[in-house]
Design goal:
Helix content is 36%, strand content 26%. The protein has a five-stranded mixed sheet, covered by helices on one side.
């Protein structure tokens, strides 16, 4: 299951990870977000300890999305060693998201 990431646990989650971290910025009212939500959950289950997969609700957490200039959702950011290494905007197929994440493993 994907981690629930918030403004308060974001830095800790990203900072301590020794593997790639994918963060899905989403909102309940967003149709494309609902389309990729099952994909994000599948990746969390399939990748297990190879990557950290998390979700951040932008309506409930506005600090971090503002920091990274998130203007469109869904936006998926991939972090490695605390730094953004890739960005996905919009609902893309699972294989595309997986390929970008695996490139960081």
């Amino acid at each position: 299951m994907a981690l629930q990431i918030t403004d308060s646990n974001f830095k800790e989650t990203i900072g301590i990870a020794d593997k790639p971290v994918l963060v899905d910025f989403w909102a309940e009212w967003c149709g494309p977000c609902r389309m990729i939500s099952p994909i994000v959950e599948e990746l969390a289950n399939e990748l297990g300890d190879k990557a950290v997969i998390g979700k951040m609700n932008v309506d409930e957490n506005q600090g971090v999305p503002g920091e990274f200039g998130i203007r469109s959702i869904p936006t998926l950011l991939i972090f490695k060693n605390g730094e953004i290494v890739d960005k996905i905007v919009g609902a893309l197929p699972k294989h595309t998201i997986l390929q970008k994440l695996e490139a960081q493993m």
